[in-house]
Amino acid sequence: MSEPTILDRLAALDTNTVSDALDFLQLKGATYGLRPLWDCPKIVGRASTVKVAPKTDATPTMHLLTPVIDAVTTHDRVLVISGGTEGISCWGDIVANASKTKHIRGTVIDGVSRDIDGSRDAKYPVYGRGVTMISARNRLVQVDSGTPLDVAGVTVHQDDYVIADRCGTVFVPAARVEEVIQLGERIDRRQNLMVRDVRAGKPVSEVMHDKQFQAILDGSETGSASSSSRNPKQASPEDQELSALFADSDTAGVSDALDKLGIPGQAFGIMPLADYTKVTVGPAFTVRYVPASNPPGSVGDFIDDVAVGDVVVIDNGGRTDCTVWGDIMTQYAGIRGIAGTVIDGVCRDVNRAIDDEYPLFTAGRWMRTGKDRVQVGGVNEPIGVGKVHVQPRDIVVADANGVVVVPRDRAREVADVAGKIEKTEAGIRELIAGGATIAEARERLGYHLLQRRG
Hints:
Layout: H1 6-11, H2 15-24, E1 35-36, E2 43-54, H3 66-71, E3 77-82, H4 93-101, E4 106-109, E5 112-113, H5 116-121, E6 126-128, E7 130-131, E8 140-145, E9 149-151, E10 154-156, E11 161-165, E12 168-172, H6 177-199, H7 204-207, H8 210-218, H9 237-244, H10 251-261, E13 271-272, E14 280-291, E15 311-323, H11 327-335, E16 340-347, H12 350-356, E17 360-362, E18 364-365, E19 374-379, E20 383-385, E21 388-390, E22 395-399, E23 402-406, H13 411-433, H14 438-445
Parallel strand pairs: 2-3, 3-4, 4-6, 5-7, 14-15, 15-16, 16-17, 16-18
Antiparallel strand pairs: 1-6, 2-8, 2-11, 9-10, 11-12, 13-17, 14-19, 14-22, 20-21, 22-23
Region (Disordered): 220-239
Cofactor: Mg(2+)
Organism: Aspergillus avenaceus
């Protein structure tokens, strides 16, 4: 069997691990905001760089990108495009199909794409900032190729290495790729040992201690597993009672009840990682992160104190430049019966959370670690998440629509109002199914008063 190539070895890693390796080596390469534009697979390859810019005259030109696509002769290429203009497409379905025919592995755009369904139908991976319907024709032109680009704050050279997955896009300098991959492989082995330990119930405060991360640089691959995985922190009877009040509710109904009672509780901009079919309910275990000190403090030890059924609610000030939750925390939280996690900030290792069906609600996702960038500033104290004030043990309700926070001392009142609202809406749906008009049904059951205060 032949030795794995550089691309094979890079493909065996993920963007989180590669980002960590770049961090250890103090190299820039992780970008924020360049995400899959359809549910496309990971791409790994070498950059063919293209720069576009606004068209400044009426002279007819070839469609941008076509010369670069036509010139491709190998099967390791990823098109990397910079210079995109907000709202103007620099990618579409025709060039996606042409690229697929040329065995190009995918495209990363520091800009937006249109015809994204066409790229999906062609099974052609596209990563970028978003989608649009506005054509580049007579608006953008190709101005250069094969030259260094600025892509989301990272300088990318022709033939640099590219890896992109659900967490985002990372570029690796070609001159350092062997070093980055070797360290990435070491990080991956160490993290697998750490996951094994948390699966066995070893305290995460020990598993994620700084000495474990130092072992990555030292090259130590040893690990130990302990036996007990049961969470000794059990939910109190009152926690169970208050959570049960919302078991048959959803965030829409609870939000309406909060509005009717004049209680602010809807967490703005905090969205589910996936379209969860179940509602997550539990008391808030609050965590506040702050910028790291020198030397840096703890990032995840608090989780050993979280009880069964709690929802971890993290205030990272809405930061999107570093994460505070990853696969080890997901694995450990699931083992210990923690209900879910809400973050005013970003998470990483999203494949683990999605595959494990662990509920995560965040302001986004990215792959760069928060280690040595942030640290825990306090636990079980008042925090702010998505412009909502959260007290420890407030009741969190979260689902595919987002997150609401119910003050603990008003939980019974809110649950009662939410139940009445949901019962009224069920009655309206029943009347409509029986032939009534929406206006008739709403009038009969007082729909317009449901959310009104008073």
